[in-house]
């Protein structure tokens, strides 16, 4: 019997977490792992106590045709990465790995070439997470070294989106 590799095992768990997401466009699931132990999970959804987009049947960014990766101040949701980070202490996250999976709500297909937005990258950097592993297909993924985001600061180049 073939055994699932560890990265895809954790990505499978993050993919299950995204099923709690409440976004009408794309739902993401994130888990933070340290020393081979899941220390936090997060999914995209409105702040606690506020109505979710799926309940309102309305998305401001979709209505305004905002491109992927831009104008997140218009979004009702807290991103999966942010929810995972705020549910964990920084001390526990230092040197950890975040696993991230996204799925398009309308097509139910994995988000291709997914990446953390500029805002989430700042959260991840300050949390002390060392790498983010992002699912591309059921068995393929990319490893992003957080130090690369520090060394190659996209915000200085005016890059928008992903």
Polypeptide structure, described:
With 162 residues, the protein is α+β, with helices and mostly antiparallel strands. Helices cover 29% and strands 21% of the residues. It is built from seven helices and five strands. The chain has helices at 6-17, 53-56, 60-63, 80-86, 90-93, 118-127, 146-151; strands spanning 26-34, 37-43, 97-104, 131-135, 141-145. It starts with 5 loop residues before the first helix and ends in an 11-residue tail after the last helix.
Q: Nutshell version of this structure?
A:
The protein has 162 residues and is of the alpha+beta class.
Total strands: the figure is: 5
Supply the helix-strand structural class. Answer: alpha+beta
Q: Output the helix-strand order.
A: HEEHHHHEHEEH
| Beta-strand content bin | 15-25%
Q: Tell me the major beta sheet.
A: 5 strands, mixed
Instruction: Tell me the strand order in the biggest sheet.
Output: 2-1-3-4-5
Question: What's the pLDDT, averaged over the residues?
Answer: 93
Radius of gyration: 15 Å
Q: Tell me roughly what share of residues is in helical segments.
A: 25-40%
* DSSP summary: helix tally: 7
Span from first to last CA? 38 Å
Shape: globular
Uncertain runs: none
Question: Keywords for this structure?
Answer:
162 residues, alpha+beta, 5-stranded mixed β-sheet, 7 helices, 5 strands, 29% helix
């Amino acid at each position: 019997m073939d055994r699932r590799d560890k990265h895809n095992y954790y990505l499978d768990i993050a993919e299950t977490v995204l099923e709690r997401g409440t976004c009408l466009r794309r739902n993401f699931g994130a888990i933070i792992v340290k020393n081979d132990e899941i220390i936090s999970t997060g999914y995209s959804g409105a702040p606690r106590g506020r109505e979710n987009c799926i309940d309102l049947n309305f998305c401001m960014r979709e209505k305004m045709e905002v491109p992927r990766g831009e104008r997140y101040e218009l979004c009702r949701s807290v991103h999966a990465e942010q929810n995972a980070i705020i549910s964990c202490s920084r001390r526990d996250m230092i040197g950890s790995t975040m696993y991230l999976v996204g799925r398009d709500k309308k097509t139910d297909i994995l988000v291709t070439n997914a990446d953390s937005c500029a805002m989430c990258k700042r959260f991840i950097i300050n949390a002390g997470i060392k790498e983010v592993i992002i699912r591309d297909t059921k068995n393929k993924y990319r490893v992003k070294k957080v130090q690369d985001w520090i060394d190659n600061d996209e915000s200085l180049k005016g890059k928008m989106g992903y």
